[in-house]
Amino acid sequence: MKKSFFYCLLCCFIYITTATSQELTGQQLLEKAIEYHDPNSNWETFNGTLNVTMETPKNAPRVSTIKINLPKEYFYVKASRDAKTTEYTVEKDTCVITFNGETNISDKVAKENNLSCDRANMYKNYYTYLYGLPMKLKDAGTVIHPKVTKKTFKGKKYLVLKVTYKESVGKDTWYFYFDPKTYAMEVYQFFKDESKNDGEYILLTDETVINDIKIPKKRAWYYNKDNGYLGTDILK
């Protein structure tokens, strides 16, 4: 009886050890990260407002109000720094630009301040991508590499997911760093040419909950090549 009991106990221990030591695939890691950040799958119907302050060395803060309504394909950003306020509204295929309260903008002013619908869509893609991570990694054209690596970054161990994109979507190589216990996304970095160690890495700290989605409050940007500090986005 005792032998049978200890044999069963040993089998259970071996099973548990084997199961927990199995390596996650890239897709499995992504699913666990999304389960942590967006447990109720709310990103697809996201409709909310983000108030972001960007702090950069030697510049006044840039204060932005960002509205994203994914079901209606609506995006709006109002950004103010010094005496300039720019507003971009993108709704499906339409674009409206406002500069210091004026929509009738001369070509000269538009050129001097880099105002265009291309830039409006760039902001739309930028903010929707960054604040929609890691859920945005399920978008079409995203290539999730199957092998998950383990890496120590800034003194902490992470599970690292490599992501590239089909040529029609993008050319950068991205790495996403997840806490091995909670699967929270805490760092990501990208390279234009990894052999040159170019590109940047972003440290994510603190969290806030918007529409039941856990979103990092602070994003501090640094160069990969020399750890040079670029700035911090703070979600108010």
Characterize this entry briefly:
A hairpin with a 2-residue loop joins strand 7 (149-153) and strand 8. Strands 1, 2, 3, 4, 5, 6, 7, 8, 9, 10, 11, 12 and 13 form a 13-stranded antiparallel beta sheet that branches.
Q: Can you describe this structure?
A:
The chain is of the alpha+beta class. It folds into two domains: 24-42 and 140-236, no CATH class; 47-131, no CATH class. It is 22% helix and 42% strand. It is built from four helices and 13 strands. Strands 1, 2, 3, 4, 5, 6, 7, 8, 9, 10, 11, 12 and 13 form a 13-stranded antiparallel β-sheet that branches. Mean pLDDT is 92; it is low at 5-21. Residues 1-21 form the signal peptide. It comes from Kordia antarctica.
- As a percent range, the share of strand residues is 35-45%
Low-pLDDT residue intervals, each spanning 5 or more residues: 5-21
Strand runs, count = 13
Number of domains: 2
Cα distance, first to last residue? 63 Å
Choose one word for the global shape.
globular
- The helix content is 10-25%
Whole-number radius of gyration?
22 Å
**Sheet bearing the most strands, described?**
13 strands, antiparallel
Series of secondary-structure elements, N-terminal to C-terminal: HHEEEEEHHEEEEEEEE
What integer is the average pLDDT? 92
Separate helix tally: 4
Structural class: alpha+beta
